[in-house]
Amino acid sequence: MTGFDRSRIEAAVAEILAAIGEDPTRAGLQSTPSRVADAYQEFFAGLGQDPQAELGDPIPLEGADAETVLMRDIRFRSVCEHHLLPFLGVAHVAYLPHDRIVGLGRIPRMIEALAARPQLQERLGEQIAETLEAGVGAKGVLVVLDATHECVTTRGARQSDSSTVTIASRGALAEPAARAELISLIGRGIA
Q1: What's the Cα-to-Cα distance from 186 to each of 30, 144, 181, 190, rounded to whole Å?
Q2: Which of 81, 122, 159, 175 is catalytic?
Q3: Residue 190 DSSP label
Q4: Residue 102: what pLDDT?
Q5: Which of 10, 119, 121, 127 is catalytic?
Q6: What is the pLDDT of residues 23-49, one digit of tens each?
Q7: How open is the CA angle 131-137-143, to the nearest 5 degrees?
């Protein structure tokens, strides 16, 4: 990860501990700055990744156009850029291929690259849609994110049972009927 300055993070965490009235040299806290630096390196690893590259080379379609591809329940973790607290959720991603598809294992990798940076859920959904649309030249894309934000569940309003749902759509999958059909499939098992 380029630009990651471990010693600055450790110093900042020690300063935060002192600023809240704790002793950063106390036995239980001595390793905390290092642990937080380890966590931040993982949480923000996406800053050094190209999400488009995570999709790999699209696979040409042979024969008839494919129908919509829907991948449900892709778990993700991100960090809210407003409070630097995690938000956790699931992504449901659909796209209507034009003449290329992407390997299914590539979609979660692309999402992880975008989620592993200071983020807003609304922007994350838009970035996933844009990356997939550009990566495979899709005729349509739909991204539904459902996440729980620790900045809502553990502070301020403390709404521990709330979640936030955002939708980003492009092209043919932005049409109301297509969106409704896919959202129905996301919400229940496919028989």
Answers
A1: 46, 9, 9, 9
A2: 81
A3: -
A4: 94
A5: 121
A6: 999 999 999 999 999 999 999 999 989
A7: 45
98 catalytic per annotation: no
Instruction: Tell me which of 15, 41, 42, 82 is the catalytic residue.
Output: 82
49 is a catalytic site residue: no
Say if strands 164-171 and 140-149 run parallel, antiparallel, or are unpaired. antiparallel
**Tokens for 85?**
């607290």
Rg (CA), the chain: 20
Q: Which two tokens stand for residue 175?
A: 């049409």
| Set 80, 92, 112, 127: catalytic member | 80
Which of 173, 132, 126, 161 has its CA nearest to residue 145? 126
First to last CA, the chain: 43
Longest dimension (CA), the chain: 67
Active site residue 92: no
Q: Does 10 participate in catalysis according to the annotation?
A: no
CA distance 93 to 110: 11
- What three-state secondary structure class fits 171? strand
Catalytic residue among 22, 49, 126, 151: 151
Q: Which two tokens stand for residue 110?
A: 């692309």
What the chain holds in terms of domains, given with CATH numbers, is 6-43 (1.10.286.10), 58-187 (3.30.1130.10)
Record the pTM: 0.92
